[in-house]
């Protein structure tokens, strides 16, 4: 009898482990040239790019059970063009393959948001402003 109970318990444990969700927390950092709102109007804005990226992520992964965005921040004053933007993306999936697919969607969505901000400001790769790259760039870790 003890052996049957042990097998049943081990089988139940294995089933629950197999059905467990997997997750990841991604930190997204966006950077750009920044500047003062008075003299540098029209430069790319890392906070605007981050907001555009978040909108794209929400389109790509509409389920709040799979994706949660939090900790949005950036910029350093009310009258400057933000040189940095940050947010966190928490992902949850049924297995590693599905999690990898969600991560790929996040990468594509962020790139779309960054591209939209750069295009809106008329910035192309390689353009400089004030001696630094004019385009918004991002890192996901």
Overall pLDDT: 89
Order of helices and strands: HEEHEEEHEEE
Radius of gyration over all CA atoms, rounded: 21 Å
Content-based structural category = alpha+beta
Strand arrangement in the largest pleated sheet = 3-5-1-8
Strand content: 25-35%
Largest sheet: 4 strands, antiparallel
| DSSP E strands, number | 8
Low-confidence parts, pLDDT < 50 over ≥5 residues?
5-10, 12-18
Task: Assign an overall shape.
Answer: elongated
Separation of the first and last Cα atoms: 51 Å
Helix content: 40-55%
Number of helices: 3
Summed up, what is this model?
The chain contains three helices and eight strands, in the order αββαβββαβββ. By secondary structure, the protein is an alpha+beta fold.
Describe the model.
The chain is an alpha+beta fold. The protein contains three helices and eight strands; from the N terminus they run H-E-E-H-E-E-E-H-E-E-E. The strands form three sheets. Strands 3-5-1-8 form a four-stranded antiparallel β-sheet, with helices on one face. Helix 2 packs across helix 3.
Provide the descriptors you would attach to this structure in a database record:
3 helices; alpha+beta; 141 residues; 40% helix; two-stranded antiparallel ribbon
SSE diagram, text form:
Layout: H1 2-18, E1 22-31, E2 35-36, H2 46-60, E3 67-74, E4 80-81, E5 84-93, H3 96-120, E6 128-129, E7 132-133, E8 137-140
Antiparallel strand pairs: 1-5, 1-8, 2-4, 3-5, 6-7
